[in-house]
Amino acid sequence: MMNYIKDIAMKYMSTTGRAGRFEFWAVVFVAGVIVLAPTYILFAPDSKNADTYVNISSLIVAWPTMAAQVRRWHDRNKSASWLVLNVVPIIGTIWIIVELGFFAGVDLDGRCIIDMC
Q1: Is 117 domain-assigned?
Q2: pLDDT score of 1
């Protein structure tokens, strides 16, 4: 388990390679904690300061989150252009969660493989 976390930390800014479901969920969890937890601990959720913090912290975690998605799309044998789903409201988010979070990776021949985690 520690090796997976160490690998994630070493390549969190890289878009090359592949990422398993564990790595995808780990990045989503950490990004959620960075953005949401301090909002509810330090600020009233509907305050102006909370909005500012959420906007800034979302920008900070955007690249590592997209890099993990690109690696996960590669693991699903799809191109990084599937990132465009991030701008499709509701349906795009659901599609990303299902496709990247629950489906196993595939090899270059299109066959399902054992996940990397």
Answers
A1: no
A2: 61
